[in-house]
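Can anyone check this?
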Amino acid sequence: MALGPTRRIVTGHNTDGKAIIQEDGPVPRYQRIGGDIGPMFHEVWNTRATPAPIDADSGEPHEEGIQLAPPRNGTRIRVLDIPPDGDKLKDLTPEQARAHFAEIGAADASSHSGSETKHAHMHRTETIDYGIVLEGEVVLIMDEGETTVRAGDIVIQRGTNHGWANRTNENCRIAFILIDGQFADGLA
């Protein structure tokens, strides 16, 4: 199972307008969130506008730390290593869950309200997310229903309240492409 930073290859253009490989190496931001029970975030890239400007040789727009959602009108791609849930996660309080999400600038995204919550990491963002399972499996938990997602499966997450439960004994690696969105009237 591939653990460790994800490799990132960034292309660009030289002064003659020829296509080049601008960067090739590990992602610059790689961090575990939520202590030893939390997922490992591999921040790959973000954009700050749609359409995204394509210029000769700029890099990724600067960001401080790890942010859950993409920039306003932008996108984000990340790889997430989700460890097995284990026993510690089931005892997570709503305050601890909010603190976990606060580490990634999204305390208000947490919807964990206590023992009646289906999973301690239930949350909702105003985004469209494409999740592609690369290795392992994870259970997608919704307000009503759940399904197991395995390597090769793709989830289109449309601003709904959800959680990810790793009920196996192995890591799950999933790539996410997040696109800034806007809730329709009545869904906010």
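Reply from J.R.: I decoded it. The first helix runs from residue 86 to 90.
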